[in-house]
Design goal:
Blueprint (H helix, E strand, L loop, with lengths): L1 E8 L6 H7 L2 H6 L3 E8 L6 H7 L3 E4 L5 H11 L4 E6 L9 H9 L4 E3 L14 H19 L11 E4 H6 L8 H12 L3
Parallel strand pairs: 1-2, 1-4, 2-3
Antiparallel strand pairs: 4-6, 5-6
Length: 189
Amino acid sequence: MLVSAVISAFNEEGVVGKTIKSIPTDKIKQKGFKVEVIIVDNASEDNTGKEAAEAGAKVVREEKRGYGNAYQRGFKEAKGDIIIMGDADLTYPMEMIPEFIEEILKGYDFVIGDRLNGMMEDDAMPALHRYIGNPLLSKMLNILFKNNIRDTHCGMRAITREALQRLDLGAPGMEFAIEMVIEATEKKT
């Protein structure tokens, strides 16, 4: 089986290489998986793409800016049976990828991280987002779509290729994150 780490990047020179190197590819390979790392350079104006390539990632450039546009391009490039999503700015602990894979192997099609579990560093998210915005929006989505997801906006995710193919995704910007949750819920993924 192949695991594809798809990471969107916009002007992440100086950190994208560190993000790539933080992916525990050896640990994933020890579990019997092959690994590909795809950086989607979302029309960066710096050396993001060059740094990513030097760190060993496959780099594809998406000229249409936007979080959703970047991920949709990355999904088209990914060959993996399991697709891991994350950001290029070290926002998420890539060393946890094996735990996301384990959840997929237990039979889940779609796994979302949880930044609101008490492990977040103090300055990682503005207090307004951390204590009001994100919890309130997550609660509203959970009520509307009968979910129980504490952090619906977390960008570190894992999804099977089969589940991803069932989703009808098209949002170009940050609304892509919520669209993915809604689609997964409606398609019972």
